[in-house]
Backbone:
């Protein structure tokens, strides 16, 4: 009963935080500079994790500026919030999210590039758009989850290599990020925030709200250029690097 009470309290606070974020986006974002938006997005994401009783621990150095393509494993619907809390970046995400109430508006405000994953033509469009954003003159930080779906966070699924072509075309570096959720008290892996297999979105959210204090650990590898690798080889190397960081 107490867990349910605390979960409902968290849910109320997070709901108000989402609504406030949407109000800021609609009221202030049109007149703000890019750096002002970045600062507010990061502060909003950090506050969201605090409201969910999730500590954030960083290993390594997040990118301060671009151009760089962040490549991360994918565990939860929370991963975007976690990465935004660590640094400012723009995401490549499935087009369905653009239609989600409230969340869709917030992700659009964060500059997300949406992709129809079932369309090869749309994938080519997004790769071209990513390459433009990664061009040295733009200096953007883009983030992708090349597994294409969420896993339990204990191992890394095979990577789809298509989006790595954007970094090759723009001659931009890739920086790997290993994302792991754990129980804050014991340090043991936590599956509370996972969104896999038969999980429903609402079920995963409720499990996260009921969980005791959690910690999410982000381990950043060094930024590396392709060094002659094609996209398949680069994707395979990035997956190996993330797997090693998860086991460290």
Residues:
């Amino acid at each position: 009963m107490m867990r349910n009470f605390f979960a409902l309290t968290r849910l109320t606070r997070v709901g108000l935080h989402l609504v406030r974020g949407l109000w800021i986006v609609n009221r202030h974002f049109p007149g703000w500079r890019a750096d002002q938006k970045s600062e507010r997005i990061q502060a909003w994401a950090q506050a969201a994790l605090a409201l969910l009783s999730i500590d954030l621990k960083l290993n390594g150095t997040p990118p301060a500026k671009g151009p760089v393509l962040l490549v991360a494993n994918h565990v939860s619907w929370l991963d975007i919030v976690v990465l935004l809390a660590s640094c400012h970046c723009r995401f490549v995400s499935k087009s369905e999210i653009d239609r989600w109430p409230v969340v869709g508006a917030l992700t659009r405000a964060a500059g997300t590039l949406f992709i129809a994953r079932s369309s090869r033509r749309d994938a080519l469009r997004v790769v071209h758009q990513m390459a433009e954003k990664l061009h040295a003159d733009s200096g953007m930080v883009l983030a992708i989850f090349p597994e294409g779906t969420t896993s339990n966070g204990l191992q890394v699924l095979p990577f789809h290599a298509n989006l790595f072509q954007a970094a090759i075309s723009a001659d931009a570096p890739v920086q790997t990020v290993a994302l792991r959720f754990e129980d804050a008290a014991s340090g043991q892996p936590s599956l509370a925030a996972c969104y896999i297999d038969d999980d429903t979105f609402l079920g995963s959210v409720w499990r996260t709200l009921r969980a005791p204090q959690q910690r999410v650990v982000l381990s950043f590898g060094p930024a590396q250029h392709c060094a002659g690798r094609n996209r398949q080889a680069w994707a395979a190397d990035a997956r190996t690097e993330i797997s090693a960081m998860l086991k460290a």
About this structure: Residues 65 and 85 are 15 Å apart (CA to CA).
